[in-house]
Design a protein that fits this description.
By secondary structure, this protein is mainly alpha-helical. It contains 15 helices and no strands. The termini are far apart.
């Protein structure tokens, strides 16, 4: 628990500090944030890699300071969401499958790789003490990469050995995290631009789906299974609004959706409502993959297991994001 406490102190102590006075342009601070996150998301705007390892104590402190500086210049709902998100467990699972850290590691020295593997190992051990664990998908992805690294003579052996008897979470939902319900609620509030409990959302989605939507629909196909589904739809049909979250390629999905004139046909409307239902099922009601598959099989007239599994993984990786389309359905 001491390790958990030491990481918490980095964020919580900073959170108690007063807001900084604006001292430089928003764009300058924004560029520094993008540079800080260069391990997590490459950007055409920033070419130099930042020195901080993602989710190290130094990274967390610097990111928090940048969020606060940006907030003092321009207070937005997105910044409020990102600052609230700092309270939750993601920082203890630094190897996020939403990012291409493997690509970044390929550019690093042996010493730097060793520092990263040691950080991940330290974080995962500390996380387990607080019952914070990887999903099966995250574990399998990490083990595949580490196995190749070991074959290439890397210093990944200790981390791979630790993961050899690692027991992942049994489900993908946020409900399995400590404070997971609060974490999910914060995401629902932000992406939907509304405040309802998960149970209220389930009732609203069910009612709206029954009101004029087909009970069976064709599943929408996506080109990139690793990119957020909502972002792929917005990118193809809307004028994109710049954002601050690396997970969405520095685009703001909430404002983009709100300012977009996109109109869904009946099939698309039913599809997104189905994904909202699935989202609440996974992250609030604790659905496992088998139950999620059964649900999609009951809704998709062209049910394909591989397509369904990709959708389920996406819902697990990007909780509540599908609710950006609530007001479009």
């Amino acid at each position: 628990m001491r390790k958990i406490a030491s990481v918490l102190s980095v964020v919580l102590v900073l959170a108690g500090c007063g807001e900084q006075q604006p001292s430089r342009p928003f764009d300058d601070v924004y560029r520094e944030l993008v540079s800080l996150n260069s391990w997590l998301k490459e950007s055409n705007q920033i070419s130099s890699a930042h020195s901080y390892l993602p989710f190290s104590d130094e990274y967390l402190a610097k990111r928090h300071a940048l969020y606060q500086e940006l907030r003092s210049i321009q207070h937005t709902n997105e910044l409020d969401y990102l600052i609230i998100d700092e309270r939750f467990p993601q920082r203890y699972l630094p190897w996020l499958i939403q990012s291409d850290i493997a690509k970044q590691l390929s550019l690093q020295t042996k010493e730097r790789k060793g520092q990263w593997f040691n950080l991940v190992l330290t974080r995962l051990k500390a996380a387990q003490e607080s019952k914070i664990k990887l999903t099966r998908l995250e574990l399998d992805t990490l083990v595949r990469f580490l196995t190749l690294e070991v074959q290439n003579g890397s210093e990944a052996n200790s981390l791979l050995s630790y993961l050899s008897d690692y027991e992942p979470r049994t489900r993908n939902g946020l409900d399995q995290f400590p404070n997971g319900s609060e974490w999910y609620q914060s995401k629902l509030n932000y992406f939907s631009s509304d405040v309802k409990t998960p149970l209220e959302w389930m009732q609203q989605v069910t009612t709206k789906h029954a009101d004029g939507s087909p009970s069976k629909m064709l599943a929408m196909r996506f080109n990139d299974v690793d990119s957020p589904l909502v972002l792929q739809t917005l990118s193809s049909q809307c004028k994109l609004v710049e954002g601050l979250d690396w997970q969405f390629d520095y685009l703001n999905p909430v404002l983009t959706s709100q300012q977009c004139s996109i109109e869904f046909n009946n099939n698309e409307r039913a599809f997104w409502l189905t994904l909202m239902h699935l989202d609440v099922g996974i992250h609030y009601q604790g659905w496992n993959r088998a139950l999620a598959q059964q649900f999609l099989a009951s809704r998709f007239s062209d049910y394909d297991e591989q397509v369904a599994l990709k959708i389920i993984d996406q819902i697990g990786m990007y909780p509540a994001t599908v609710f950006v389309f609530w007001h479009k359905t």
